[in-house]
Design goal:
By secondary structure, this protein is α+β, with helices and mostly antiparallel strands. Helices cover 50% and strands 14% of the residues.
């Protein structure tokens, strides 16, 4: 974007039309960056950002499609308000097709800051599995207007892709194995835990695995520890709590 609605030139460093991005990182960070970049292209957005958050207030920037969007994504944590904060708090998308006076009343500090940077619409999608909340995917546009039905579907698909990447990355980071024997033992225990959760929640085996992994992510515990607690009946996952109950 090269100017604002009233004809003024945009501030340096906020030109969404010609972002200059450094080389994409590797590993999980690289995958999350790619999710953001692909989503921005698919939705004709000026930028897409992603933040990870926890129910106890811990939050942090995860990835963005470009450096300008990374700065915009971080503003909501600087000010403690914005679509991302609300989407996470209420576990539902926050769709703001026009950052107008109503948006300014809702987010009095955040709204003028992002509009000064050229943003005219924001769409925030929570990243969650069941009750386990992981973060939020934010789509920014430099023009007002709602997402079409097809674009909304694409955004939700991108959010699911981000959830999968976060869960996979967390599992690789904190859930190491003790050689082939350890890997076999943990796989057997995980399969048993899947079966138990499948019966408890009335879900498919695949969904049971997703719920177990989401619980491990949300509580910051190794997957094999969560699995062991389920098998030993120290932990029971339910439909209403990300943490389950002992």
């Amino acid at each position: 974007m090269s100017g604002t609605d009233d004809g003024r030139a945009a501030e340096p460093g906020h030109d969404f039309a010609r972002p200059v991005s450094p080389p994409a990182p590797d590993g999980l960070a690289g995958l999350l960056h790619q999710v953001c970049a692909d989503t921005a292209q698919a939705l004709s957005a000026c930028g897409v950002g992603m933040s990870v958050m926890t129910a106890d207030g811990v939050h942090g920037f995860a990835a963005a499609s470009d450096p300008a969007t990374a700065r915009i994504e971080e503003l909501q944590f600087t000010f403690g308000e914005g679509p991302c904060v609300d989407a996470f708090a209420y576990s539902r998308p926050v769709l703001m097709p026009n950052l107008d006076a109503a948006a300014a009343n809702r987010w009095p500090v955040y709204t003028p800051a992002v509009t000064d940077a050229g943003v005219r619409a924001v769409f925030a999608f929570p990243l969650q599995v069941g009750a386990a909340r992981l973060g939020v995917l934010d789509v920014f546009r430099d023009r007002p207007g709602s997402l079409s039905r097809a674009e909304l579907g694409q955004a939700l698909a991108s959010a699911e892709r981000a959830v999968t990447a976060l869960l996979d990355g967390q599992e690789r980071t904190i859930d190491g194995t003790d050689g082939l024997d350890g890997a076999f033992d943990r796989s057997a225990a995980l399969f048993q835990a899947q079966g138990m959760v499948m019966v408890q929640l009335g879900v498919s085996l695949a969904e049971a695995l997703v719920r177990i992994r989401a619980h491990a992510y949300a509580t910051g515990r190794p997957l094999h520890n969560v699995t062991a607690d389920i098998v030993s009946r120290r932990l029971r996952l339910d439909q209403h709590s990300a943490e389950g109950s002992s």
